[in-house]
């Protein structure tokens, strides 16, 4: 299968490309620079000139292949509304190019937040999650596009721990000299190893059926355990802070690390035969 991917040189996208190439698929990555082209070539993919803002390039890229995987996102937390709008416009451009073809369109979203303590499943709606990916993509399912939603955990990690929210937490702890948790720290977060997540994208693509899948490896990790592992890794103390202090200490991550937000991938595992097999978050942190 010939697959067009956005965000192919990113943390998640680069691993997805390697899974696809290893499985025998031909991959074409959206590229806006010579550096990006070289990175794609190193992963075994060819490149297609364009960007998320160049909607015509997205349409042309989508029309030239058998399937599209949208991994790109502008991670600008200072103006998340603008980032969400760019994401929506990109998805709509790709979707319009695929109307009437029944070709697969895999769109990256995220496991939504839920009521405190409620285990979020694939059956839950997008809720208050700030990205517009799902609401932008789903209407195309009624227009002969095979829309699949892939929801990675908020805490996607890998052995290097240099990307995503975990890297941000490590940076905060190093800067402030303390690894903090909120209250008693017994609230739960969820996480997934990026290598397991990449496998999920491959299985979802080859399943070629409209669905919502959740990339959750560890569904309910007490955040205090994460804070303690970070403290041990950095050799800094671990301490409790109040909910009122969380925003100042963690910045935009405050509501996430303080919420009790367990999640499940049981439906995904049953539908795809997907099994997380790579190291857990706490294992990658060295606990």
Which short descriptors sum up this protein?
287 residues; alpha/beta; Rossmann fold; UDP-galactose 4-epimerase, domain 1; 2 domains; seven-stranded parallel β-sheet; 12 helices
Can you describe what's shown?
The chain is built from 12 helices and 12 strands. Strand 2 (26-31), helix 2 and strand 3 (46-49) form a beta-alpha-beta unit. The protein is α/β, with parallel strands linked by helices and 287 residues long. It folds into 2 domains: 2-152 and 192-216, Rossmann fold; 156-191 and 219-285, UDP-galactose 4-epimerase, domain 1. The protein is globular and about 55 Å long.
List low-pLDDT spans.
none
Secondary-structure-based class equals alpha/beta
Largest sheet: 7 strands, parallel
- Counting structural domains, the number is 2
- CATH architecture of the largest domain, by name, is 3-Layer(aba) Sandwich
Total count of helical runs of at least 4 residues: 12
Number of strands: 12
State the share of residues found in helices, binned by percent.
Answer: 40-55%
CATH topology of the largest domain: Rossmann fold
Q: Separation of termini? A: 41 Å
Order of helices and strands: EHEHEHEHEHEEHEEHEEHEHHHH
Gyration radius, in Å: 19 Å
**What proportion of the residues form beta strands (DSSP E)?**
15-25%
């Amino acid at each position: 299968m010939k697959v067009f991917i956005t965000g192919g040189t990113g943390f998640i996208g680069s691993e997805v490309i390697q899974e696809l190439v290893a499985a025998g698929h031909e991959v074409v990555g959206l590229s806006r620079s010579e550096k990006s082209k070289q990175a794609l070539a190193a992963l075994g993919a060819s490149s297609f000139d364009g960007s998320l803002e160049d909607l015509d390039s997205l349409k042309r890229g989508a029309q030239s292949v058998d399937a599209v995987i949208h991994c790109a996102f502008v991670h600008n937390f200072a103006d998340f509304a603008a980032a969400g709008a760019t994401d929506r416009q990109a998805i709509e451009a790709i979707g319009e190019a695929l109307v009437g073809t029944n070709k697969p369109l895999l769109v990256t979203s995220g496991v939504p937040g839920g009521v405190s303590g409620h285990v979020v499943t694939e059956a839950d709606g997008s809720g208050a999650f700030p990205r517009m990916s799902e609401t932008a993509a789903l209407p195309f399912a009624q227009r002969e596009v095979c829309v699949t939603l892939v929801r990675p955990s908020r805490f996607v990690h890998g052995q290097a721990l240099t990307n995503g929210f975990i890297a941000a937490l490590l940076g905060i702890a190093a800067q402030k000299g303390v690894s903090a948790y909120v209250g008693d720290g017994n609230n739960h977060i969820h996480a997934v190893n990026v290598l397991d997540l990449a496998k999920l994208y491959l299985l979802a693509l080859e399943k070629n059926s409209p669905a919502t899948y959740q990339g959750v490896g560890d569904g309910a990790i007490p955040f205090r355990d994460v804070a303690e592992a970070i403290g041990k890794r950095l050799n800094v103390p671990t301490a409790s802070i109040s909910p009122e202090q969380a925003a100042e200490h963690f910045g935009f991550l405050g509501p996430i690390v303080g919420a009790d937000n367990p999640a499940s991938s049981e439906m995904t595992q049953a539908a795809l035969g997907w099994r997380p097999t790579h190291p857990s978050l706490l294992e990658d942190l060295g606990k």
